[in-house]
Design goal:
CATH architecture: 3-Layer(aba) Sandwich
Strand order of the largest sheet: 2-6-1-7-8
CATH topology: Rossmann fold
CATH superfamily: P-loop containing nucleotide triphosphate hydrolases
Strand content: 15-25%
Number of helices: 10
Structural class: alpha/beta
Shape: globular
Order of helices and strands: EHEHHEEEHHHEHEHHEH
CATH class: Alpha Beta
Radius of gyration: 16 Å
């Protein structure tokens, strides 16, 4: 384990694989902070919709972020373990999980300028505090020297079921057919994007959560952390 850095646990995986839930629970179990980087990209998507910024125009999105930055305040008392702000406004889970945000977040996050801006913020957080960080390129790009790297996956059916529950709890109306299409399209976009395509890091521990619950996944991750120490 690299003892020159605070503990970094990187959790990657496709949409609705359970990264957010598992990362939050792992951070609580380890007594460290949690950051779901997907929430940061969702905040960018939210701002793009609010400002009418073209989601495929990288330079326009970067200018938008210069004027209305996305920031994160780590707060273990918050429901997510952190608070996300876009242009100075705190964004709740209902804002971040809205259907129109979900529909464009992969396109927004594929822009290299947007990714560069978000990665700088994410690396700054991880350099200061022990953290569990979840996303799609954490172990490969954001925290390549993380002491523990996890690639969390699950069957498409399990992921659709979990995302539907998550959205319903956030008060978002759900169309199951549309949800399945969105997840399949996100998988395609995440795997084929030119910048940081979704893939497990070479040294990642792959965990399939299709048939195990979140507590069991957390048990496996904490055991890996203990062995790494």
């Amino acid at each position: 384990m690299n003892r020159d850095l605070p503990l970094q646990v990187a959790i990657d995986g496709p949409a609705a694989s359970g990264k957010t839930t598992v990362a939050r629970a792992t951070a609580r179990r380890l007594g460290i902070l949690n950051l779901d980087t997907g929430a940061m990209y969702r905040a960018v998507a939210y701002l793009a919709l609010r400002t009418g910024t073209d989601v495929d125009n990288d330079s326009a999105l970067v200018r938008m972020l210069d004027q209305q930055p996305v920031t994160v305040e780590l707060d273990q008392s918050a429901p997510l373990g952190f608070r996300v702000f876009g242009g100075g406004q705190e964004l709740g889970e209902r804002d971040l999980q809205a259907n129109d945000v979900t529909a464009i977040v992969s396109a927004v996050s594929a822009n290299p300028g947007v990714r560069a801006a978000m990665v700088v913020s994410q690396q700054a957080i991880a350099s200061r505090w022990p953290v569990v960080m979840a996303g799609r390129d954490i172990g490969t790009v954001v925290l390549p020297n993380a002491q523990v790297k996890i690639y969390l996956t699950a069957s498409t059916g399990a992921r659709i079921y979990r995302r539907r529950l998550q959205l319903e709890r956030a008060g978002v109306n759900v169309d199951s057919h549309r949800l399945a299409q969105e997840i399949e399209e996100r998988d395609r976009l995440d795997a084929t994007r030119a910048v940081s395509p979704l893939a497990p890091a070479a040294d990642a521990h792959v965990i399939d959560s299709s048939d195990i619950n979140a507590d069991e996944v957390v048990d496996k991750i904490c055991a890996i952390v203990a062995n790494a120490r």
